[in-house]
């Protein structure tokens, strides 16, 4: 059988997999979909997809190059147990690590870190700014991911909207971008992109078509780099009514959106669909 020529690059959290708080099960209880747990952390179930979505992902893995594309660190990604064939490629740390059969490609990582050093303010400056300006009244955790970017875990209902806007302006002038996703505020260097890593995977696989999905500001470059893309009815992109010519804005929210995205992927990968 010839190798698949379609590459499917998808964000994970709040795109394909969902925490219990993000499921958005708005239907009557008796009509709620059956769920499959795909992540356990500290002996507790953490992330889910519908059983139907799991079957679609298994089918997708047999017909396309499926590439999980996440802002998660490698450690956070590796505790996810997705159904279907193990992906040959995965993208972690927003493009900072390109995993090949589960192992980070050292040449890719070295090239990324060199570019960050050349093009934007150092991580230490951003960390210091976050520490100096974020109020302990609403910050629960300060974190650094893979020595590449920083994020805060916050009490969302206490978070001042104006502080987020001021942080975004400050970061912009230093070559960084800010993304608010659920209870996390990310500060990420602009050259650190999912799209660059996806283009490298497309080059290595010889893919003729790239499909993508994502819900946050950090997924916008990924969606724009794809031939076709989908975003759910929730998340930063939906809240900003963000769209582009090759992007489909789906109405579904929560775990139902993850299932719909996988239906779109599997349909687009079938012979004659392109």
From TrEMBL:
MF annotations from Gene Ontology: hydrolase activity
Keyword hit for Isomerase: no
SUPFAM superfamilies listed in its UniProt record: HAD-like
Record keywords: Hydrolase
Keyword Hydrolase: yes
Protein name: HAD family hydrolase
